[in-house]
Amino acid sequence: MAVLSNPYLNACADDLRRAAKSLNSADKFIVIGANRATPELEDVVIPIPATLRSVVGGSLHALQVRAATHLLPLAIAEPGGIGRQVLRRVAHQVIAAAPPDPSRRTPGVRMDDDEVRKFIILHSDLPAVSATKLLRKLRDSGFSCEQGRFKKLFHETMAEVAA
């Protein structure tokens, strides 16, 4: 069994394919991985979507490990012992029954660069203004902007305002 995030799954893909072919019982070869497995590994990988976070908690960084910890006892309790097909069936059942993730925020309305700059200028006089605080304010008001893009625009705009 291997429990891998997407970057590790991609890095190990060749080794995983070779290992899967060398086993006598293919059903005993289990990879719990990211929801975006390479096509060559789709039959081997039990994909774990982000929606399972509402069941296992925590951040997305260790989702596969927490999912494996949650799913393995359920699969072991199934008749026939643990195998990829049993674990896949249990995972599908848990994923299908997963409630919505309350920590996921509704995506805001995307703003273009000019709109973001206007927002920054409008709020640049706030006390102890920072890119982080202003991005939070923007998102809380129902808009969205990628963090790196906002930070770049914030620093450019604040330099222009100061000049």
Present the secondary structure layout.
Blueprint: E1 2-3, H1 6-11, H2 13-22, E2 31-34, E3 45-48, H3 53-56, H4 63-76, H5 84-97, E4 109-110, H6 113-123, H7 131-140, E5 143-144, H8 147-162
Parallel strand pairs: 1-2, 2-3, 4-5
Helix pairs in contact: 4-5, 6-8
Structural account:
This protein is mainly alpha-helical and 163 residues long. It has 2 domains: 2-97, no CATH class; 109-162. It is 52% helix and 9% strand. It has 8 helices and 5 strands. It is elongated, with a radius of gyration of 22 Å.
Overall SS class: mainly alpha
Q: Please indicate the percent range of residues in DSSP E strands (runs of 2 or more).
A: 5-15%
- Poorly predicted ranges (pLDDT <50, ≥5 residues)? none
How do the helices and strands follow one another from N- to C-terminus?
A: EHHEEHHHEHHEH
Tell me the helix content: 40-55%
Provide tags for this entry.
2 domains, two-stranded parallel ribbon, 163 residues, 52% helix, 5 strands, single chain, elongated, mainly alpha
Summarize the structure in short.
The chain has 163 residues and is mainly alpha-helical. Helices cover 52% and strands 9% of the residues. It is elongated, with a radius of gyration of 22 Å.
